[in-house]
Amino acid sequence: MIFSNRLKGLAFTFLLAVAALQLQAQDKMLTMEDAIINPALQPENLRQLNWVAGSDDFTYVKDNALIRGSAKSTKHKTILTVDKLSAALQAAGAKEVKSFPAVLWQDAHTMVLNLQGKIFNYNLKNGKATIVTSYAADAENAELDPTKQRIAYTKGNNLYVSAPGAADVAVTNEQNEAIVNGQAAHRSEFGISKGTFWSPTGKNLAFYRMDQTMVTDYPLVDIAPLPAKLNNIKYPMAGGKSHHVTVGVYNTATKQTTFLKTGEPAEQYLTNITWSPDEKHIYIAVVNRDQNHMKLNQYDAATGEFVKTLLEEKHAKYVEPEKGLYFVPGKNNQFVRVSERTCFDHLYLYDTNGKEIRTLTKGDWMITDVLGFSKDGKKLYYSATAESPLERHFYSVDLSNGKSTRLSQGGGTHSAKLSPNGNYIIDTYSSQVTPRKIWVINNKDGKVAQTLLTSKNPVADYTLGEVTIFPIKADDGTDLYTRMITPPNFDKNKKYPVVVYVYGGPHLQLITNSWLGGANLWMQLMAQKGYIVFTLDPRGTSGRGLEFEQETFRQLGTVEMADQLRGVEYLKSLPYVDADRMGIHGWSFGGFMTTSMMLKSPDTFKVGVAGGPVIDWNYYEIMYTERYMDSPEQNPEGYKNANLLNYVKDLKGKLLMIHGTVDDVVVWQHSLAFIKKAVDEGILLDYFVYPGHPHNVIGKDRVHLMRKVTQYLDDNLKATPQQ
């Protein structure tokens, strides 16, 4: 399979590196608070590390002061303390600030600060702050325009724009709360993360208008007040009515809004919204409800008229555009787009007539991020999995010939930020044994210009288990990456219980060559308690290309389960694994997988803990479910086979199910239906809820959650700490 020629070398490198890490370890043991919420045990970082606009300078916050450096010099200096900033802000009408607010840059000498319902400029030359504009205190989804003079925000279901020296303008005035403006549409699928899109100069604002009047209300109950309060949300379930979305364009000069004529059918997905550099056109990747046909359409921003379809992409299973267009600097008629048409996300250069000029990247690996262009527009910088699906590196590609050059150094995971001038990259790096390093990289030769941070090992004083990453084979020969953590003072002559941590769904990769192999400290805590902790990324997960992901199409929980069972087979082949003491835990899709394993392979695991589990895909939202399963009408057999209510009677082991009572992602009805079916079938299980929590239990309550999970595993697997 892909990268198989590198697997042995990678595994050997990981083993050597981890052995070195173990030599550093001491004798401290983790508490649950340490594992979940102790920031001191996370790798050191540079707060608010960002490039300064129009320069090769950067700033970061340290000891409540703003530090400035240059890519061309190793000298860093304090340019502003929080006390001095607070005094200037108070003189401009703000309240006192005691910690550094988020910093944006207007230019090399002007900071932009968004706090206390106001936008402030702070001039480094004269040390004065001024109010640019203010906006409503209860504003949400605020987004500054490119000039950083206006701000778009939502209040309730309407959209507003605030500008200097003028009253806030209500862009929309919808009385029906089911019609939502300026917020992320399509339940944030297709790479959608926001609902407003400023034009390059800030003269116009494109925004989503989402009509949910046809979508069924779904009840959530807030138990904090007395009596409890009903909170209805709009939740479009698979096979049901989907919301209707249009795109408005608000002109800040005329204060008029024009809607793009995106046409019928109304149940379609408007994704990857991109402005042309001259602000005359808007490009939208329009995806049909079946999600197997995408049209890249051009619209006139002034009139809303459809101009043309530049290109189309179809797939027998699904297409999923997640990134907009990247226009080449100085060329309004050329752009780079990301397409998965060859089964791997790659870069293609097009003109605005829809003609492909050049394939820029190719191979059995994926583009994971587009960083930006060089100042002259001749090169594009990107991140990819070209070295290994376990790693992320960054590269430059020459637009004239498609030649790529790797710039990142060192095997592992690199996260890159391109400087405004395109000359340098801030590289935040980690590997399985490297907590964090931050470098400034020169884009001309890829050499390190300077080191900004070398994080110490935050768990050097703790006794940790050994982490190994290695592949095993799926039933069709596909390499599946696994991670195994063995207890400290591991003895191959002993028998150990196992906890399998599982997710297994799309858009997530658990195993990477990053700090601790992508594991968290709870897993290390479990290793300290005497467990082997095992994780496998099955077919259907991300980072391996379209064919790998689409193996699960129309049969969620089937191929993924087969792959997990291959992992179990491997574990059982090890003489130090106690096959009679195996447990499994996962959340969300991982909760679905945990429950599936407990029901469909009931003799495999003695105990399972399923959090926020999908039980019946009929109850899950349209955009996600119909991509991977088609609709219930199109795929009744697939929905039936995946419906865990049909297997409740087969439960043998101990199962704890956990759910947040106001979960708006995997609604509470999933696990409640499971309990009802268990009662009907006379099947016993354990159940726990987190009142007032949505899909994820976070904050201090997460310590409680993981104590609950751990206690349940301990009670049923009876692991004892290793001495």
From TrEMBL:
InterPro entries (alphabetical): AB_hydrolase_fold, Peptidase_S9_cat, Peptidase_S9B_N, Serine_Prot_S9B/DPPIV
Pfam families the record matches: DPPIV_N, Peptidase_S9
Peptidase S9 prolyl oligopeptidase catalytic domain ranges (all copies): 523-719
Residues annotated as signal peptide: 1-25
UniProt superkingdom: Bacteria
Keyword field: Signal
Domain Dipeptidylpeptidase IV N-terminal residues, every copy: 115-435
PANTHER family cross-referenced by the UniProt entry: DIPEPTIDYL PEPTIDASE 9, PROTEASE FAMILY S9B,C DIPEPTIDYL-PEPTIDASE IV-RELATED
Protein name: S9 family peptidase
Lineage: Bacteria, Pseudomonadati, Bacteroidota, Cytophagia, Cytophagales
